[in-house]
Amino acid sequence: MAATHRHGRVHADLGGVCLYDLLWALNPAERQTVYAYAEGEGTAWTEAAAVAGAPAPEALGERVRRKTKRLAAEQRRRAQQAPSPPAPGPAA
To answer: How far from the centroid of its chain's Cα atoms is residue 89's Cα?
Structure first.
């Protein structure tokens, strides 16, 4: 399995978020659509959903596109709000 290739396209499209957290939030059909998109089996989310075997690829592809974008934005927002680690103090 080419993990770097598989996730590279999605990782770039979503602004470098943690893909494992994002994939965990998806149901199996949505996850299969993301995998198909990442593998280049569709040039658009709708095509990827069709490759993944979705009965209504237009609806699923659009839903996955919006959902992954929303989840990625939420990850970035939380990362920005995370407290910074404390500065190292003087050596004892």
So the answer is: 38
Q: Confirm if 73 and 25 have CB atoms less than 8 A apart.
A: no
Domain map of the chain by residue range? 3-80
| C-alpha radius of gyration, the chain, whole number | 17
Q: What is the mean pLDDT of residues 10-20?
A: 65
pLDDT band at residue 38 using 50, 70 and 90 as cut-offs: confident
Instruction: Tell me the DSSP string of 43-88.
Output: SSHHHHHHHTT-SSHHHHHHHHHHHHHHHHHHHHHHHHHSPPPPPP
Looking at residue 76, its pLDDT comes to: 83
Residue 68, number of CB atoms within 10 A of its CB:
24
Query: Of 7, 2, 71, 1, whose CA–CA distance to 37 is shortest?
Result: 7
Instruction: Enter the pTM of the model.
Output: 0.72
Which uninterrupted H or E stretch holds 90? none
